[in-house]
Amino acid sequence: MASPGTQLAPRRVIAHVDADAFYASVHLLEDPSLAGKPVVVAGSGPRSIVTTASYEARTFGIGSAQPAARARQLCPHAVFLAPDFTLYKAYSRRAMELMERACPTIEPLSLDEAYLDITELENPVRAMRELVAEIREQVGLTYSVGIGPNKLCAKVLSDYRKPAAFNVASREQCCEIFATAAPRIIPGIGPKTADALDALGIGSLAALRDADQSLLARKFGERRGLELQARAAFEHAGVVQPHREVKSVSEETTFDIDIADLEELEERMRELTAELCERLTSRELRGRTIGIKVRLADFSTATRARTIEAPTNHYEYVADIAIELLREYAPAQPVRLLGVRVAAFDRGASEPDDEDAEPRIGEQLRLRFDRARVEP
Fold first, then answer.
1. Would you say 205 and 183 are in contact if contact means Cβ atoms under 8 Å apart?
2. What would the pLDDT profile of 325-337 be if each residue is shown by its tens digit?
3. Are strands 79-81 and 39-42 parallel, antiparallel or unpaired?
4. What is the band of 191 on the pLDDT scale with cuts at 50, 70, 90?
5. Domains in the chain: how many in total?
6. CATH no. for residue 58?
7. HSE of 32 in the Cβ direction (CA atoms, 13 Å)?
8. Is omega for the bond preceding 32 within 30 degrees of 0, making it cis?
9. pLDDT of residue 245
10. Can you tell me the mean pLDDT for 126-141?
11. How far apart (Å, rounded) are the C-alpha atoms in residues 187 and 275?
């Protein structure tokens, strides 16, 4: 209960939409003869990584970010296709236009994923059902939807029982539904943190919520420990803010196992750059500064950057410079984290706010989730 004089943040209704097997689905729409076949989208290099796989391919154990060579071993008869970002962008634009028409407050995260603040809609749940049905009919893509009082709830709910999921729940109901789920289902709790929690005997979200704070503080630090417990309780303050002036856009990843091989690092850099340039292209952003971030096994971090004359978002150009910077840096230890960014954009560029933006205070809405709806 809030103390006297405390101003409460407004209760929001947030939707997270995520296209099911987006890249593979686009190829199936372009070539219906692929229907029912295991389809894998991946580069052709010896160290290529799977970008996405159809649900038929996933039954063989193939998944995103898996080495393409391993995917070929798991399913030799799968159809392997090269990524086509021009095609993906065209489909994404059509779907996003329908979303923007239905809801003015939308925060695109990538070509196939977005948050929508649907608080002000007359019937938020019905509106989302109609929206995904319209996208399915007009574009051909199937979206999974999660609806909750904050971004964290919405994101986890949209991932539950995919494909074509449509799940609605309050924060308290999320705590119940996912009580026995592993902490790694929560964005912000990566494999290494999940393994560290396992080592402490904390293998579920309920256990993490109930864990002794001093135990978590000793292992992760007081601030991180409190953050982990807040996330396990599905508490999150981020709001959907469609636009802000952007200074840089980046992509980075922390590896499950530190990587020492330079060729593998270069391939991972290309994968990250592809994702980055996809975001830049979808927002028509071009920058003049290209930089990399490298965190070594001992947690030391280095950054390198280069500024060019003309702004760009061209994948091959950005990737070539990023790899040159990586080679020049020549990591002396195995690499724990790798990142790439583009900055110094044309004036007027904008992109979605980050998840940790502070909520704006406004009139509190008395919306209640009277019943959780969790559907396959």
1. yes
2. 999 999 999 999 9
3. parallel
4. confident
5. 4
6. 3.40.1170.60
7. 1
8. no
9. 57
10. 96
11. 18
DSSP helix/strand/coil, 241:
coil
The one catalytic residue in 107, 113, 267, 355 is 113
Kindly report the CATH number assigned to the domain that includes residue 118.
3.30.70.270
Query: 170 lies in which domain range?
Result: 14-20+86-174+366-375
- Helix, strand or coil, per DSSP, at residue 288: strand
Assign 314 to helix, strand or coil.
coil
The answer on 207 and 163 residing in a single domain is no
Q: How does the average pLDDT of the chain come out, rounded?
A: 85
**Looking at the predicted structure, is the pLDDT value of residue 347 above 80?**
no
Mark whether 328 is an active-site residue.
Answer: no
Highest mean pLDDT among 77-86, 188-197, 351-360: 77-86
Residue 369: pLDDT above 70?
no
Give bridge partners of residue 294 from the DSSP assignment.
302, 338
Give yes or no: residues 63 and 111 share one domain: no
Torsional sign, CA 87, 276, 66, 153: negative
- For residues 253 and 268, the answer to whether their CB atoms sit within 8 Å is yes
Q: What percent of the chain has pLDDT over 70?
A: 86
Length in residues, the chain:
376
Burial class of residue 232 in the structure, from the number of CB atoms within 10 Å of its CB (0-12 exposed, 13-18 middle, 19+ buried): buried
CA triple 370-2-116, angle to 5 deg: 50
pLDDT for position 46: 67
Inside any domain, residue 214: yes
